[in-house]
Amino acid sequence: MLNLLYYTSTGTELPSLERAVAELRAAGLRLKLAVFTRERATLERKKLEELASQAAALVLVPHGGEESLPGLEGLVSRFKGEIIHVQPVSGSPADLELVDKYARPKDEAFGERVRYLTLGGPENLKNFLLKLLSELGEDVPVAGTPVPSPTEGIWHPEGGFFPDLETYLDFLERRFGKIPRPLVGIWFYQGYFVNGDLEPVKDLVQEIEGLSAGALPVFHRRFVSKGEGLPPTEVVEKFFKKEGLSVIQALINLQPFSHRLLWPETERIYPDLDVPVLQGIVSFASRKNWKESPAGLSPLEVSVSVAQPEFDGTLITYPVAGRDQEEVSEILGIPIPRLKTIPEGVRRLARLAVNWARLKLVPNREKRVAIVFHHYPPREDRMGCAFGLDSFESVARLVRRLAEEDYAVEKVYESGEEIAQEFRTRQIYDRRYLSETDLLTRALVRWPVERFRPYFERLPEEAKKKLREAWGDFPGKFLVSEGQFLFFGIRNGNLLLTLQPPRGKIEKLSAGDIHRPDLPPPYHYLAFYTWLREEFGAQAVIHVGKHGTLEWLPGKAVGLSEGCFPELAIADLPNLYPYIVNDPGEGTQGQTPKLRRYSRSHDPTADAGRAFRRARRTRGSTGGIPLACGGKPGPGRGNPATDSC
């Protein structure tokens, strides 16, 4: 007879269960166990019900109520055994309802079993099985008392577990000779630590350290009973701060959902930490699913790993791991879901996080910032185009504020009109009335195409193929003259005021090609962003207006890969993009994390300056300004009669 049928929704605890079963069998215990995950149950419903009719005990581990365990009602109806254990993993009302509906008997032994699984880890899983077998009348050793696992702490792949910040900082000092700066925090689930499922955390730490920075990887258990562990606010104070001040310069959060939606009292966690917070995505699906999906993430993942963390003000970045089920466990007889690193995601997130962190350490006087006005279609009357925003006036105020904050600014502007007129006399992207001589005379930068060639050659082969199909052989003919790419811009100290380059020829863009999901940008477009990073040396970029073209380039909707064109353009450059999102159509696209931007819906009753100020607090960014709304219709201005600011 089958001893146990173990049915789990997510399977995150299965690595610990595997080790527990292996230890019991090595000790000579005969344990007949069948294990099902949600995926297996969906494919083998009849087998699940057949085994339920043979089992002496049924263990159910839901994660979100009855829907998280497909076929539950049918298998319970076939079950003829004595014990049904329902583990309320998330503590949600839906899981607790399952306990009330199905668990039997609800006695003292049930509470002890819940405790074993709540604490988790191989030793507690082993004692859970011994306890259950003992209740079934099996002659087994007495189960040990539950072994508490750390509910929070620090874990490093070389140093192991650290109970407090001071001990860990001492370890870093011994390891590197000094505490590395910048120091990047990583915040992840305690379950990864308890189950030994730490591959993406290990790889992130190693990648960050390879960039001459330090990592501070902290775990905690989100749902704890009073007195059992620290709430999120105290975790931050204990591990990411010292004497009330942040010890990190950036934070990578690997936890889905929103802190503030779960616990309203955590609303000030990130603003008070005062560092940029980057959301690393741990996919519920396999790496193969993510790689092959044009959407990138499933609707559920978009909800919990993108939309909800945005309520906390995080910058949505890349998938760093998938949950693969490739290896069949000889012990459990099924593929065990394990976190497997997505190497390109880890590399890109580490670089981006370190770049954001370094911004906190560079004196304002030395920071180089590019301010990119949107320009679509690329006509002179559409320079600085925006909806509900006077972009030129806003940037004039931004420049004044940056000068006050000691950025290297040579000229402040009395009004946005000064910038607009200077752009009109020097722009090169509306070529309808400009000769070749005009282009060469006006271009701020003439960058030899051969300087871009090494970067082009490193692009993925598929991207190079698409560029050749759309624009001919490298470097194409668009905005190329005498073997040079031509770029527009105005240098102002360490600032560069510029226009986003055209996505294509003006006649094509006017016909709607800007929104074509299969049209790659010209070579010139990618060369511009490369020049911005590599030659101008921009450490941050601010995109101004609504909307630009970067977010419409070919690639996944969310969770970009290294072959997506928005990523090929902006790469690891910290980016701020204040955006009006009360346009329900394009606002949805505007909220996609293709640009890892700060976005906010501008409310005419709100002080729009809070948007930039909050961005400054939570992103370690370039400073705060009030947004200028309305103004006269024309280049760079919204229409106050029809637009809300």
TrEMBL record:
It comes from the Bacteria. Residues 584-645 are annotated as: Disordered. Residues 115-589 form the CobN/magnesium chelatase domain. Signal peptide: none annotated. This is CobN component of cobalt chelatase involved in B12 biosynthesis. It comes from Thermosulfurimonas dismutans.
